[in-house]
Design a protein that fits this description.
globular; mainly alpha
Length: 275
């Protein structure tokens, strides 16, 4: 178990540092540290998403029996990805820290910050990214032990499908980068927004009804009968995983309303979104 986790602990922070240093030091680029940090963090998230989705596709398509079939990638990638969620909490904080400085809250001309200012930034970070930090913590402290110990080698198909939820992440990351650099009205942003909306809906929201349907087909049950036929804690776990996805999908839909609204029109209040 330690080998994949150590590998993940080297790969994700290492890729972040490599990307950041490359963007800062290449003569053709010479990016500011804030820009390099933000883009590098998004890049690592996208790479992890591609790796997770690929592993999930391989696992889910290899398991013909959705309960008993096993694939070595299911446990190996789960262990490999654990350090990513820990690293990403810190990477998100770095992005928040640099955005805080860019907005003029980091002191005059890079001077010394007031005592305790870092804690103010940390509180702001936890307030803004609380749901994402909670999601990452649950993945490490709850989902990882459950997938390694509680499953006892069962249900690799379902784990593979859950890994494929990451398909939407590269579109989310690109959208955030385009917004960060004021490219909201470009064709690329609109195309990316449409792909993000569709991929998030299919791979994160509709994923859960699909998993229930797949189990129903395996057990010879209609879809609506599946929740009554499986243990209550499984339904509870699925509901807890689905809830933040529905919230984020609502935010994406709200952003899409603003993105595809004709310029100069008065925005309807349900479609307004936060920066």
């Amino acid at each position: 178990m330690l080998t994949p986790m150590v590998a993940g602990g080297v790969v994700f922070p290492g890729l972040f540092l490599l990307s950041k240093n490359t963007l800062q030091r290449l003569p053709q680029l010479r990016w500011e540290e804030a820009d390099a940090v933000i883009v590098s963090a998004r890049l690592v998230s996208s790479v992890q998403a591609v790796m997770a989705s690929t592993a999930g596709y391989i696992v889910s398509t290899s398991c013909k029996h959705i309960i008993d079939d096993q694939h070595w990638l299911s446990s190996a990638y789960t262990q490999f990805a654990v350090p990513y969620f820990i690293y990403d909490i810190y990477a998100m904080f770095l992005c928040h820290w640099h955005k805080h400085q860019v907005k003029g809250h980091g002191g005059d001309e890079g001077g010394a910050r007031a005592p305790g200012s870092i804690w103010a930034v940390a509180r702001g970070y936890l307030h803004k990214e609380f749901l994402m930090v909670l999601h990452h913590a649950v993945m490490v402290l709850v989902c990882f032990p459950l997938s390694v110990v509680w499953r006892q080698g069962k249900g690799d198909f379902f784990l593979g499908c859950l890994l494929m939820a990451e398909v939407s992440t590269p579109f989310v990351c690109l959208g955030k980068i385009l917004i960060q650099y004021k490219r909201q009205h470009t064709l690329l942003h609109k195309v990316n927004g449409a792909l993000m909306l569709v991929s998030f809906l299919c791979c994160r929201v509709l994923l859960f009804p699909y998993l229930y349907w797949a189990y129903g087909r395996h057990a010879g049950l209609p879809l609506l009968a599946v929740p009554l036929a499986i243990p209550a804690h499984v339904n509870l776990g699925a509901a807890l995983l689905l809830a933040p996805q529905l919230y984020w999908f609502f935010l994406i839909c709200r952003g899409a309303c603003r993105l595809f609204r004709p310029r100069g029109s008065t925005p309807p209040s349900p479609c307004q979104t936060q920066d």
